[in-house]
Amino acid sequence: MNKIIFVLVISFFSILSLQAQSKELGVASEIRNILESSSLGELSHDSKVNFSQYDLLIKFYSKREFKEAWTKEGGLSSQALVLRDQVRESLYDGLVPEDYYLGQLDDIIMNFEIEKMGENALQLAYVDLIFSESYLKLATDLYKGKTPQEAIKTNWQIQAKTVKVKFEEVLESAVKGDSIGQSIRGFWPEYKVYANIRESLRDYYKMASSQEENTPELEYKKLIKLGDRNRLIVEIRSRLIGEGSEVDSELYDSALLKEVLKVQKRFGLNPDGVIGPATISALNETPEDMILRIAVNLERLRWLPDTVVEDKFIMVNIANYQLDYVQDNGLDTLFSSKVIVGKQYRSTPVFNGEMSYIVFSPTWTVPLSIVRGEMIPKIKRDPSYLSRNHMKILTYSGKEVDPAGLEWSTVSVKNFPYMVRQSPGPHNSLGLVKFIFPNKFNVYIHDTPSKSLFDKDIRAFSHGCIRLHKPAEFAEVILQDNALWDKEKIYEAMHSGKETAVMLKKKIPVVILYLTFWTDTGGKNYIRKDIYNRDEEIARALFQ
After folding, report:
1. What's the structural domain count of the chain?
2. What distance in Å separates the CA atoms of residue 53 and residue 40, rounded to the nearest whole number?
3. Axis crossing angle, helix 254-266 with helix 232-240, rounded to the nearest 10
């Protein structure tokens, strides 16, 4: 008997006593005895294997009267081989196949090919349990995510997915129907983009295995424009086009420009063809870098609740600086607009809610943190700051306070018992309209008077709220089922100088998420800068 077989044998039994007991007890009895004897489910081994899905194993085997699921008459079922292949394929889900006992599955399959194990019921019982443990662990990680979202310090506050499946029942059905592979794929998130991203990860693994070692990192020194000559162009051309014997290798020509523009678009940069520090950084991304990035974003999709695909919903991707109003599982886009999100130290949180009303010509009651942290110092330096910005000081009972009557030299963040409110109008920091989805973060979507900021590549300038580039158009789309609010009425309300709140007939799900990589239905990749430095934390949890 090959030595590897003994990885499945508990160490404190001798081989002879194992065989003697196994002849007396059937496989089902051995499975029951193993599960009864250890609530921790530790499998003695060269290194210990934990039955982390112990509760599900109990449910699965008790319903089938502890009968084996993966072996028959001493041989492995064809579905055992399918499961092993699915575990290998979990690499392209951004997971680690060894976490699902790939090595043990390979050893078992190899040894079954060498000799039958039908005389050893205890050994067959452990084989069965390992395959079931592998299936259930992979299934739960694909469905819920491998890393608990609350344990990762990435400000992810989206409501956790409600578990709607009974994993043990799905396994039972898959075993009976010889559909293990199909059932595993059924645990993928419902978002169609998941399968697209998964294929991109497969491509990057192929690139990583075929790439030349020690690819030099490009070093930025100065801007390179079309027609410039630069030694760096030689390496850039080699990466994007390949060698060209009849080409001036140091000249930035139109052929290379086309490829540079593709890179800039893929990374969400301004496609101007100018090779600057951001473009150099994009060109320095290796397949290994991309593998980690993609794995992180697959995990984020596994965290998302399925409820947002049931109807129309609003999605804001912070890292992409874009809002999309979509339907049909995100495949049909009804509206899109650039957005501005929170600065790194006032980052926009990742959460979900329901948009319930719109406010035209809004006032702005300045959050106390901004009043204390930013406004009081500005007012002290410039007494006209409040009047220039159309702001008033109010008591919490609503009485207006004359700023000239306050002794500003003695005012501090600790002794300012007032609120500051900005009147409606084009000067208002919220612009001419705000879209409210009540949440504990006091974050909402709104217009802004600072339109020039939308021309920037990196648009992280706000205090956490989401500033919208095309607010009037968005209001039209949101209110299209309300006959009282046509384009003219919306324009009038936005410029009336008086607050008007409009309740939506049906609340719209809103998801504020953070994706730094995704792939569209055409296989085109989109890569975005990790502006809040959140990817590394998740990658560490996934792979370490």
Report:
1. 4
2. 10
3. 70
CATH code of the domain in which 429 resides: 2.40.440.10
Is 495 one of the catalytic residues? no
Does 461 reside within a domain? yes
* Cα angle value 55/97/305 (rounded, 5°): 60
CATH number at residue 239: 1.10.101.10
The per-residue pLDDT for range 1-27, each reduced to its tens digit, is: 343 333 333 332 333 344 444 444 689
Residue 322: Cβ within 10 Å count: 18
Rounded Cα–Cα distance for residues 127 and 49 (Å): 12
* Cα–Cα distance for residue pair 244/517, rounded to 1 Å: 32
Question: Which pLDDT score, from 0 to 100, does residue 56 have?
Answer: 95
Q: Which one of the listed residues 45, 463, 465, 469 is annotated catalytic? A: 465
Predicted TM-score (pTM) of the model is 0.87
Q: Are residues 162 and 249 in the same domain?
A: no
Asked if 403 and 450 sit in the same domain, the reply is: no
Residue in 45, 390, 427, 446 annotated catalytic? 446
Q: In angstroms, how far is the first alpha carbon of the chain from the final one? A: 35
- Does residue 205 register a pLDDT over 60? yes
| 446 is annotated as an active-site residue | yes
Domain that holds residue 34: 3-188
Q: What is the C-alpha separation between 377 and 385, in angstroms, rounded?
A: 10
Q: Does 142 fall in a domain?
A: yes
Within 9-140, strands assigned E span: 42-43, 49-50, 71-72, 75-76
